[in-house]
Specification:
single chain; alpha+beta; four-stranded antiparallel β-sheet; globular
């Protein structure tokens, strides 16, 4: 649940996972290539609603992966225990030691997009 400024609570359904990489051991092209392949396993997972890998413009070894999940539980209990996780993690395993941050975030209702 997330509290709004008015004190009302609403159930959070979509969870955003951010994984921030600081590459020190691998070339940046290898991370991009790994996620280009691993993305097929995210796309096949019903728990995943979308993803985006972005590179920092001012720090070429810094990347952020943003994954939209139907819920934190569906990510941790569904995807991670399901058939799409083993081939996904096999492709990205070489980069796990270069993760600087990995967290789930829930929107708080302050948003806008065009």
């Amino acid at each position: 649940m997330v509290s709004s400024a008015s004190g009302l609570c609403k159930e959070v359904k979509i969870i955003v996972e951010y994984i921030r990489y600081e590459l020190k051991e691998h070339p940046l092209e290898s991370l991009v290539e790994a996620y280009a392949k691993a993305g097929a396993h995210l796309q096949a997972a019903p728990e995943c609603l979308g993803y985006e890998l972005a590179a920092a413009r001012d720090a070429p070894s810094s990347f952020t992966l943003r994954i939209l999940w139907t819920s934190a539980d569906s990510h941790l209990q569904g995807f991670r225990k399901g058939p799409n996780f083993p081939p996904f993690v096999q492709l990205v395993r070489p980069f796990i030691a270069e993760i600087a941050e990995m967290r789930h975030y829930a929107g708080v209702g302050v948003e806008w997009s065009r």
